[in-house]
Amino acid sequence: MKRLVIFDLDGTLLNTIADLAQSTNYALRKTGFPEHEVDEYRFFVGNGINKLFERALPEGEKSEENISKVRKHFLVHYSEHKMDKSSPYPGIPELLSALHEKGVIMAVASNKYQSATELLVEHYFSGVPFAAVFGQREGIKTKPDPQIVEDILTVTKVDKEDVLYVGDSGIDMLTAKNAGITAAGVTWGFRPLEELKQFEPANIVNEAHEILSLI
Ligand SMILES: O=C(O)COP(=O)(O)O
User: Fold this and answer.
1) How many Å apart are CA 41 and CA 190, to the nearest integer?
2) Which atom of ligand 1 is nearest to the CA of 167?
3) Ligand 1 centre from 177 Cα, in Å?
4) What CA–CA distance (Å, rounded) separates 26 from 209?
């Protein structure tokens, strides 16, 4: 019996790709670099925003200086536009309610910077009593480092064997592996099934309600 479910945010609970693409394209435009199609961003997102900008910048232009310029414009735009087109994936609000009714503890572990993680969770899941909502925090290694999971376990006091980690990318599957907890890969997010399979997660699910049978 799993007592705690840890969810990744982007690509798992929320489809945020259009807003991330829109704000990054704005920042690229402002700094004079070429933009990308929304779909390309599925492979840029996942390791925090600096990595997103590094991937979005052209070859030969991926300097710290350029990343920091793009970041500045992105943050201004994303602070105003992070909820323009984002929305929970089908069945997610119902899944979270059902887990809560069953008495399962829930938490969020994201590589998105902390303030945006908190604001998005508050906006889209205001009624959900998450025990912890952790994003990318200053001085703390990002996923796939297991620190974020360890921090959630410290807050919730749940043993590792009682935890299910749910995510949409190889980074998430590796985070669960590194933390020594059971993973469920979801196929509705940003990354393809083949990427999830490479990390041999214990479970792969195609629809949100399937998570209930893994508890
Ligand atoms: O912002 C990112 O890079 C990805 O965030 P996630 O960990 O919630 O998928």
Assistant:
1) 9
2) 9
3) 17
4) 36
91-148 tens-digit pLDDT = 999 999 999 999 999 999 999 999 999 999 999 999 999 999 999 999 999 999 999 9
Please tell me the pTM assigned to this model.
0.97
Q: How far is the CA of 116 from the centre of ligand 1 (A)?
A: 11
Residue 156 exposure: Cα atoms within 13 Å on the Cβ side: 27
Q: What does the domain layout of the chain look like in residue ranges?
A: 4-15+86-214, 17-81
CATH number of the domain at 4-15+86-214, please? Answer: 3.40.50.1000
Contact criterion met (CB below 8 Å) for 211 and 184: yes
- Domain 17-81 in this protein, CATH class: mainly alpha
SS3 107: strand
On the question of a common fold for 4-15+86-214 and 17-81, the answer reads no
The residue assigned the tokens 């925003």 is: 49
